[in-house]
Each structure stands twice: as structure tokens, then as C-alpha cells.
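Suppose you are handed only these lines of text.
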Amino acid sequence: MKLGMSKQNNMRNKIVAGNWKMNLGISDSIELVQKIIFDKHKDSQRVIIAPPLTNLYRLGQLLDLNNSKIELAAQNFYFPKAGPFTGEVSAEMLLEIGVNIVIIGHSERRTYFFEDDQVLFRKAQSALAHGLEIIYCIGETLAERKAETHLDKVKSQLDDLMIKIDKKHWASNSIILAYEPVWAIGTGVTASKQQAQEMHYFIRKLLKETIGSKISQNISILYGGSIKSSNALEIFEQPDVDGGLVGGASLDASSFNSIIESARKTDKR
Ligand code: PGA
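From them, the structure of the protein bound to 2-phosphoglycolic acid can be written out as follows.
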């Protein structure tokens, strides 16, 4: 496939989201959050952090107290309203503590917790119906990349979302997509800027064909997989890359701040 490029669009601001996974207790979380340098009053990009569930409430209070514009996301939730689901939390419970964003479909949830496209679709549907914003992750394995089926794989992961989710949720920008090739997550191997751009362009083209041109231009598509301070800039410079979902490097304040700085430099407004 020829490397495509969508028209530069000034509506999409950069987003940097830190996925802390199962790392950092309360005191380490507080220490890290206090070192993140981000002043939304000066900058138009967004900074989101997704700490472990047990830290969300406390961090929310701290961010409010400091008038911080850093936003909180949950790494997971379960779609029923309430009931006998040991170990799970609902969308309403997240909203009650001021968490308005949730990550859905991360490859670690798919692999270790056997969440398939059907479950993930139900999660997306429920989260959006409750008014949560979602960061929906998709991406191919190394075997699929080698077999050159990566585009088909990503399309299949997006099909239900594009076809069955009420268009109003796309139109209101409640859906952020995150392309995370499984072979790049936590491995130190990053997709090249060309590989990232090719996939992001492909996704935007799918959105355009399935949902419409205007929406496709407004939807943010993040790249994730071994983003670090040394490669963030060249990836964020790609015209269809709207920021990053950062794992390991989001646990270190200076790396995360440098990645935020790369987003600032490449922000389109
Ligand atoms: P990584 O993780 O940056 O450590 O590769 C990214 C992710 O899993 O979201």
C-alpha cells in the first residue's frame, strides 16, 4: 500500500496518555503526578494519566486541589450497571469519583483476561452510553504483521465499533482510538514513523468510508508501543498521529515530561 497522508487538520489537538498499568501505589503515584509539567492554560493539548484503580479517587482529589488540568482515566471497567461481578467496577462508579475516561481493549486485557472483540464492543457501548470518553485500543501481533494481514486485523477490530456504535458518539469525539501494535508494547521496539503513519492513515480512511469525512478528520488516533523521549517527536510529527498512549515511559517523570513537550511542539493549533 502506498503511504498515504490525510490533509492536515487543525481541529485535532495532541493527546498524551500515560498508562501506568499495575504500577505505583498511592505515595509513588502522588510523587509522580506532582512532577508532571503541564499547564493547560498555556497549551491546547491534553494530558491524561491512567493509574491503578485504587489510586484514582485520591489522585482526583489532589488534581482538583491543585487546579490541575491533567485528566484521569481508568484502565478498565465492566459493562453491567451493578450486580454479582466480583472484582469489577461499573461506569457509574468511575463517574462518581470524577473519572470520565476509560481505556478499553488494551492488548494485555485481550491476552491475559481473554477479552474479545464482542466483550470489548459491549464495554464501549456501555461506557459511551454512560457518558464516559473511551480510549479504544487496537493492533496486530507480530505474526500478523509478518503475514501482512495487519491492516485486515485492525479493520476487523474496528468493524463493530464503526458500524454499530451510535454515530452521535463519534460525532461528539467521545471515542479516541489507540493503535498499539502488540509487538511494540513493552518490547523497546517501536513502529517506524512510516509504519505508524501508514496504519493511522488506513484507520482514518476506514472511518471516512464507514462513518463520514468530517468525523474521520476529527477523531484522534494515538500511537502506542515503546514510545520514549527519543522517538516521540518523529512519531507525533506524522500527519495522522494525534499523540501517544505511553506505558513504561509514563512512569518516569522526566521521560513523560519530554514526551509531553514533543506533543506541545507538534500540536496543530
Ligand atoms: P509501552 O506500553 O509504552 O510500555 O510499550 C504502551 C501501552 O501498553 O499502552
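What can we learn from it? The radius of gyration is 17 Å. The chain has a mean pLDDT of 93.
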